[in-house]
Each structure stands twice: as structure tokens, then as C-alpha cells.
Amino acid sequence: IKLLLQCRKWHYNFAAVLIERNVPLLLSSAVSGSEIVGLYGETLEIPCNNGAIKADDVLLTKWKYDGGDLLVKNKDQNVSITATDEYKGRVSLAANSSLLLSAAKLTDQRTFTCMMVSSSDIKEYPVSVEINKMPSSLEISDKAEELEIGKRTKLGTCVAQDANPAAEITWLKNNERLVADEKGISIQASVQVDPVTGLSTTSSVLEYSAKKEDTNAKFTCISQHKGLTSSPVSFNITYSTENIVLQVIAQEPLVEGDNVTLKCEADGNPAPTSFMFHLKGEVMKVENSDTYTITNVSRDNSGEYKCSLIDDPTMEATKEVSVKYLDINLSPSGTIVKKAGETLDLTLQIDASEDSKVSWTKDNVKLDKEPKFTKVIFSESGRYECEVTMGLLSRKASFELVVEGAPVISKLIKQRGEDGKHKVLICEAEGSPKPAVSWSINGTSLDESPFVNGKITHKITVVPTANLTVSCTVSNEFGTDSKAINVSSCKYKVVAQGSTNLAFFQLVCFIDNMAKKKKKKTTTETSNGENADYRPL
């Protein structure tokens, strides 16, 4: 067995020597070829067996092509460059046995073969090489100065310089692909090959029939090489005016005293810059501007307005201008003084450009309807305001009503105090100016309400020791009024409730007339003229 192994080792060493000396051998096996793509001008790495090499088993590595040998490397020895042609200074061997080929060019598009001798076999690995090159530039030349609507015109030529394979050019409008239809779009491409470098230059000519919407369009061209796009170009597209529009620029709503601007807009390229403005019978020529301003408008400025082209008066646009107005007149106004019982006639005149709505408030409280004053009373005193609205417009007017007259007591009542010992007497009166209030008995004053809308309320507290009659008197510069009310004294008895320690009060009020006579119900005139019943409590 040892002898057999030694013979086998001697056999492959001898084969390696023969390979190194270019002596043809019968290979024990061959591997089907692979393909790689390299970039023009870059260093190309051509793998041997796709890089799957076990260096310990390799006795000899050799690279060659159909034109001759390139290099050879014996185990534990340096690489020997055997190329004598253009590859002599361009080839080297990588650590993984790949062939390194510098400054790749189109003539390198061929098959390179890696031959490997190991202790057990001899194999070859062919690799087919393709060299690609992006275009050195992509530009649009021979650009048209302007395009005319409906007429097919040469827009420009897109040139992709020095590429391999030849560039395929696509035209875009606003990033949308253009497709030749031989009507409005024609695209013709041609390719030229450099006889020295072998690189291809592609030219693509676009003829295009422009439309009005192409005024601001961006045209570009791209090649199939990733990320390569030309700079966008735009073209001046000429066409006559087809549409004209008149705009009214003003705040909303447009009211008297405001300014209004008329703006005339027309299409076409070049677009018109001067116009005629027709102002209700008056014609104004405006040059190098598309606006005309009317200041401090009034309702008389309402009506139809026009603008037209100077060189074509038939090309015109119209617009209706409506000046809103809302005038109101409230009579009477200011401060109005009336005697109680008198009549107040109100007149509200409205002059408006449209239908309006009216609302009323009294002392900032909304009223359900317009106030009517056939016979004014004290409670109708106050500030009245009307608001007239028409859309976003509103107007307000107001008056202050003061009702004067002799005071009248509207209510005189009595209430039991919280402790059961006191009586609270309440006197309400109406009148204007504010009436003075007096009582026929001394008491403690609890409260006097504010004088509002001709009304005042006065309260006093008394501790009656006997049955008595109390009068309330009110007076001002116009007269006096007085009312009386009967007030009875009260007795108290405290009764204990056994062991519950619960105390309560029994209040027994005796009216002399009831005790001495028939114990009938007695009536006493109240402040409003009605009879109030008084019973023992």
C-alpha cells in the first residue's frame, strides 16, 4: 500500500511538471463554464471554481485563455507570469486562486480557464467574461427653441455616449414614458460603434406635437443603466388666447366704503398683459397689468362689469358686482321720558339690498317680539336695543325708556320670623323717580332692594307686644301712596316631652276681637285691596 501511494504521488508531480511545460495531458475531469460581468476600466476578479478551492490539496494552479498562458503557480512557490502579450502587465493571482485582471476593456470579453492539479485529480474551470460600461454622459442636444400646438416638431436629440452594451434610450414627459405613435410622437434611435474602443454611442431623436397643457412640461431621457437620467428640459409653447375670465376680488360681504379689484385673466402663450375694463359705460385701458381697482364703492357701483383683449374686443368676460347695504332708522331714540299711562309710538325704517331680520332685547335680555307701548307702566322702563341682520351685515339702534309717575304700593304683606317672635313686614311699590319708603312703626330694617325698572321692595322686622295696625307710605315728587296692615301679638308655651328630652314650641296667637266677641274669622285689608284671613295659631 505504501508503495502504491508513493507511485501515485510521483505520478501527479510528474503531471504538474508536464503542465508547467505546456505538455498536453488527458484530463481526468472538466467542469462546465460559468459567467461573470465586469465593469469597464475596473479590476476584474475571475474566480477559479467559484472560489471553492482547497489550497492544501493543490499542487499547481495555472490560468490561460485561447491565446496562450497567463500565469502558473506551484505549491509553496511564487507566481510565475507567463503572458507575453497585452496581459503581461495586467494579470496577477489572488490568495483564493482567482485571476485578477486590471483595467478591464472590451477585448477582455472571452473565456479564461483555470487549471488545477491536486494529489488526486486534474481539473479545468472555464469562465466566460462580459464587460459592461455605463454611458459616460446622457444629454439632450439640438433642442427646439419653441413648440407650436398641433405641429409635430423635433424637440431634441438624446445622446448616450460610450456604453456597452449599447444604451436603450427612453423619453419621458413629467416622468411618464412617451411611446411613439407616428402621429403626435415619433422616436428614432441610431447606434455608432467606436472602432478603437468598441464602445457604442446611442442617439434618440424625439419629434413631438405639443398640446396646451405642455406649457410647463419637463422632458427627460433615461437609459436602461440604473440611475442614469438626463437633466430635464422645458420648451416654450405658443398658442393664442382661447379663454378669458374676470374675477372680482373684495372682502365678503362687499359693503359701501370698501375697495373692489377687477382682475382679468386670459390663457395663451405668451399671455396677454394689457386689457380693456368696461366700468358701467366707461372704458379704461390698462397696460402691463391685469387688474383695476375701484375705491370707496357705493350702492351705485352695483352692476355688470367687463374686461376684454385690447387687440380683440370680442374676447371678453363679464361679472356682476353687488354692493351690499343696510341702513336703519329708529325713532324716537336716545333717552325717552314718559308718564305712566302715556303712549309711545316706535318707528323702525329699514333700507337694505336684501331681506333682513329684526331682533329686540331689553336690558340685554332677548324679547320674543317687537315691544309695543300703548300705555307705559313702570316695569317697562329700561334700555331697548334692536339689531337688524342681513347675511353677515348687522346694524343696531337703541333707546332708553324712563317711565315717571306717582308711586303706587303694589304689595304689603307680613311674614313670621324664623324664631317665631318677630314679624317681617314687606312693602313693594312702583314709581319713578325712586320713591321714599316710611313706616308708621319703628322696626329693624332688614333689606331694601335695588331700584330697577321703577320697582322697589322694603322690609322691616318688628316684635309686636300688642295687636296694632302698621302703615307703609311711599312718596316722590309726583305723589304719595299709603297702605295699612294689621299685626297681632303672640304668646309662647314650652312643653317638655317626657324622657325623650324632645322640646317643641306651641305658639298661640290671640286676636282680641276673636277672644271678646264670637271667635269669628276677621278680615283685614291687605296692600292690594284683597281680604286676608287671620286665624289663631
TrEMBL record:
<keyword id="KW-0325">Glycoprotein</keyword>
<dbReference type="GO" id="GO:0005886">
    <property type="term" value="C:plasma membrane"/>
</dbReference>
<feature type="domain" description="Ig-like">
    <location>
        <begin position="242"/>
        <end position="322"/>
    </location>
</feature>
<dbReference type="InterPro" id="IPR013783">
    <property type="entry name" value="Ig-like_fold"/>
</dbReference>
<dbReference type="Pfam" id="PF08205">
    <property type="entry name" value="C2-set_2"/>
</dbReference>
<feature type="domain" description="Ig-like">
    <location>
        <begin position="24"/>
        <end position="130"/>
    </location>
</feature>
<dbReference type="InterPro" id="IPR007110">
    <property type="entry name" value="Ig-like_dom"/>
</dbReference>
<dbReference type="InterPro" id="IPR051275">
    <property type="entry name" value="Cell_adhesion_signaling"/>
</dbReference>
<keyword id="KW-0393">Immunoglobulin domain</keyword>
<dbReference type="InterPro" id="IPR013098">
    <property type="entry name" value="Ig_I-set"/>
</dbReference>
<feature type="domain" description="Ig-like">
    <location>
        <begin position="407"/>
        <end position="488"/>
    </location>
</feature>
<keyword id="KW-1015">Disulfide bond</keyword>
<keyword id="KW-0472">Membrane</keyword>
<dbReference type="InterPro" id="IPR003599">
    <property type="entry name" value="Ig_sub"/>
</dbReference>
<dbReference type="InterPro" id="IPR036179">
    <property type="entry name" value="Ig-like_dom_sf"/>
</dbReference>
<dbReference type="Pfam" id="PF13895">
    <property type="entry name" value="Ig_2"/>
</dbReference>
<dbReference type="GO" id="GO:0050839">
    <property type="term" value="F:cell adhesion molecule binding"/>
</dbReference>
<protein>
    <submittedName>
        <fullName>Activated leukocyte cell adhesion molecule b</fullName>
    </submittedName>
</protein>
<feature type="domain" description="Ig-like">
    <location>
        <begin position="135"/>
        <end position="238"/>
    </location>
</feature>
<dbReference type="Pfam" id="PF07679">
    <property type="entry name" value="I-set"/>
</dbReference>
<dbReference type="InterPro" id="IPR003598">
    <property type="entry name" value="Ig_sub2"/>
</dbReference>
<dbReference type="GO" id="GO:0005911">
    <property type="term" value="C:cell-cell junction"/>
</dbReference>
<dbReference type="InterPro" id="IPR013162">
    <property type="entry name" value="CD80_C2-set"/>
</dbReference>
<dbReference type="GO" id="GO:0098609">
    <property type="term" value="P:cell-cell adhesion"/>
</dbReference>
